[in-house]
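Page 42, continued from yesterday. The earlier attempt failed because a stray header line got pasted into the input along with the sequence. Redoing it now with the clean sequence only.
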Amino acid sequence: MLLFTGRNSICTQKVLITMFEKNLSWDTRRVDLFKNEQYDPEYLQYNPKGVVPTLVHNERAIVESTVICEYLDETFPNPSLVPSSPCERALMRLWSKQIDEGIFEATREISFSAMFREKLRNMTERERQIRFRNVGDPARSARFLSTYEQGTESPYVFFGVASFEKLFRQMSETLSDGRNWLVGSLLTLGDINLMPFVARLEYLNLLDIFIADRPRVQTWWKQSKELTGFQKAIPNMLTEEDTSEMRTSGTQIRDSIRTHRAKHLTQYKEAAHAA
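This time it went through. Structure tokens are written below.
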């Protein structure tokens, strides 16, 4: 197996945790996203969207991190990371769906406003225009440009904060019956798919804003970080430069994120009261 990865790529981290938890072996090829290597014609043959990760197995490319994780579980079923019952499998996929449809973009916008925005500013005009032209679809282009131009004042950053608040509220409610993991009693891809996104908030020094008053989520997070797969896929692969950059840049937007959360909570309470 060959895995195309990106430095400090959250979606790649999902796949790596899965692979480490299954004790798999593979070769790695790094794609430098800030040199626009993801748009190299050779790589686009594997992944037409020009994103990472991409898994190549038996000469066939598998794309989209959530799909890759399920592919790995079906191809290498022991140990299984998917529940045995259809109902629990559906619940697991609902967590993954929430990541793919909201939390991924939320993390991208918050991360971008914190640190990647400056990296883009430091690119040459030619490199920057290549990145803008290859964003992909109009909706994604709008988010990308808004966050680049406005930073944390972009409405998309506010939407991202609201998405995380909804996620952690849901997690706290789900874990309220004393379970260890989000689906049943065993670790599943529903948990694994969440971990890198929660980790990114922690590295940005923003996680406590959301979970300081959510002890059940704190317990889930503590045991998640103790997993061998998590340790190998995230902390062990990050450099001191990576962690320092995230903490410094995240701390700079901490007050803005806290303000966004307070605004969202006010709106949420007003809507709940009106209902």
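Notes: The longest helix spans residues 86-121.
Reminder to self: strip header lines before submitting.
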